[in-house]
Design brief:
Length: 247
């Protein structure tokens, strides 16, 4: 990947600084990766593929076409992960009906009242049908950007014996970045599937991929991630059965 999505946003000095400072070295793959799909829900995709400025009329947080462009890559990645028996963990939001727990989100967004209930036909926190969780998958509800913040994610990764994360989802500059930094802080190896991540801002998407690749994770093509998954040993994980326990 000689040309990176962030190259056009960097000055020659920026590139020289990263190189001289040693940032952006390629890390090693983990041996037991879990797949993390962050917030690919209708609130961030809208209900159909359309330009972002049209989509946000109904869905203020929508990434519009940028989201739907990522969906085929996510589908291929999830298919390969399920075929190999890797754990797949989804995150999405969940707020009280009175929105009391929206909390600090409302400090920087003037449309939190529109996040649900104003012309939408789906619950904004529902993961989109095109990549819907299967019974053995894990779904975590969160209130804040990081998938680790006040959630059982770290405990679940310990229970699974995962040593690394393959991260996808949205937004690159927000919940993805926050989750990646927290994973890095817990000493997980982190890989981002580039085409499986998206944002509402092209500049924010590119620059945050650049910064994460420089310091916290490896940003690689989805094709490379899938090729690596196929090479992993079978039977690495004991996954949830997805079946209700007998009573």
């Amino acid at each position: 990947m000689s040309e990176r999505v962030w190259d056009e946003f960097l000055t020659d000095q920026d590139k020289a600084v990263f190189k001289a400072a040693g940032y952006g070295a390629r890390g090693a793959w983990g041996k037991r990766p879990a797949v993390l799909v962050i917030d690919v829900s209708y609130g961030f995709t809208g209900e159909k593929d359309e330009p972002i400025l049209d989509s946000i009329k109904t869905w203020p947080n929508s990434c519009g076409h940028f989201a739907w462009r990522a969906v085929p890559h996510l589908q291929r990645l999830l298919d390969a992960s399920r075929a190999k028996g890797l754990p797949i963990i989804y995150t999405t939001g969940q707020f009280r009906g009175d929105q009391w727990d929206v909390g600090s989100w409302a400090w920087k967004n003037g449309r939190t009242d529109d996040w649900n209930g104003h012309g939408q036909n789906r619950d904004g926190n529902d993961i989109i049908d095109e990549i819907a969780p299967q019974p053995q998958d894990i779904v975590i509800r969160k209130l804040k950007p990081s998938a680790f913040s006040s959630t059982p994610l770290n405990a679940f990764l310990t229970q699974l014996g995962a040593d690394s994360l393959i991260v996808t989802g949205t937004t690159t500059s927000g919940c993805v970045r926050a989750s990646v930094i927290d994973a890095f802080s817990e000493n997980y190896r982190v890989t981002l599937a580039e085409e499986g991540c998206f944002d509402r801002s092209e500049a924010s998407h590119a620059i945050n991929l650049c910064d994460m690749n420089a310091k916290y994770a490896d940003v690689v093509s989805t094709d490379e991630v899938i090729d690596h998954i196929k090479e992993l040993p079978d039977g690495l994980f004991e996954l949830p059965s997805g079946k209700p326990m007998g009573r």
